[in-house]
Amino acid sequence: MANIKSAIKRAELNVAANERNSQQKSAMRTAIKKFEKAPSEDTYKAASSAIDKAASKGLIHANKASRDKSRLAAKLG
């Protein structure tokens, strides 16, 4: 455990950020699974939006976001 005040604070912030990032990534995965279960225009938009949000926050690489969206679009059409 950290002894220095700033290190303690940083550790607490890391826990909070990890929780937030995990929720965001989980929401993205859920949106993708919903689309794969029932492909429609609405579920595609929701999944695509979730992927874009994850990419903009740095949770996934931009290339992975593009690849995932492309795969979803192929399943839609």
UniProtKB/TrEMBL annotation:
Q: Which GO terms describe its cellular component?
A: ribosome
What UniProt keywords are attached to this protein's entry? Ribonucleoprotein, Ribosomal protein, RNA-binding, rRNA-binding
Query: Which InterPro entries does this UniProt record tie to the protein?
Result: Ribosomal_bS20, Ribosomal_bS20_sf
Which protein family is named in the record?
Belongs to the bacterial ribosomal protein bS20 family.
Instruction: Give the protein's biological function.
Output: Binds directly to 16S ribosomal RNA.
Q: What name has this protein been given in UniProt?
A: Small ribosomal subunit protein bS20
